Amino acid sequence: MSTGTQARRKLVAGNWKMNGDMAALAELDAIAAAAALHPHVDVAICPPFTLIAPAAARTALPIGAQDCHARASGAHTGCVSAAMLVEAGARLAIVGHSERRADQHESDAEVRAKAEAVMAAGMIAILCVGETEAERDAGRAEDVVAAQLAGSVPPGAKADALVIAYEPVWAIGTGRTPTPGDVAAMHAGIRTRLRALLGPEADGVRILYGGSVKPANAAELLGLPDVDGALVGGASLKAADFVPIIAAA
Ligand SMILES: O=C[C@H](O)COP(=O)(O)O
Q1: Is the C-beta atom of 167 inside 6 A of ligand 1?
Q2: Which domain of life is it from (predicted)?
Q3: Which structural domain range is residue 100 located in?
Q4: How many domains does the chain have?
Q5: Which atom, in ligand 1's list, is nearest to the CA of 213?
Q6: Does a structural domain hold residue 8?
Q7: Does 143 reside within a domain?
Q8: Could you report the predicted ipTM of this complex, rounded to two decimals?
Q9: Backbone dihedral region of 173: left (phi > 0), alpha (psi from -120 to 50 degrees) or beta?
């Protein structure tokens, strides 16, 4: 998988969430075939933990995890370490998804520790940020995202190991998306915040948009300034939906 440092290659990553079984891995074949037709786009799939090893064995597509424990080992029932993910074949891992921030009460500090573990293991961290609808309605969206970045982006992170995914919580799985202007403004704001945190390295960090990305809206969203790709949930489960998004990138 290419790094983001040179002209920020687009990245279209699928997050299967808690969906998929062995039979679903057949979708990877069609996705891989489409990805080969678009070599200027990086494509990755993040299936459930149980499918990482068989997915990585089946395809050359980069396979990722949806979470990672911050510690290397120990008494953490139900958790999986970064080294375990690498051994299973993962090359990237999502951290700080809003569903985990909400359901598992993950703090910015925990997300940062997870991102550091992912990077230390040689994987790419896709670090998610995004405001709730109430926060946007209150005019606090940019401040909320800025605070998440300040609290969860590891200091000294390198552009080839860090991807930011801006996912407004209210747009996830709802069929709703921010206006193109709001997406562009938020991505520009994220870039500015990253420069303050990481210096010039920030210019190589890819910033993905996520939240109800579909074939019908992908071209518009992916064509916006500072939108370096997409993190796709529901529309990544079927190649018939995901492939047009890859093509749009
Ligand atoms: O990680 C993916 C996002 O949560 C977006 O999900 P969605 O495309 O189903 O809205």
Answers
A1: yes
A2: Bacteria
A3: 17-248
A4: 1
A5: 8
A6: no
A7: yes
A8: 0.99
A9: left
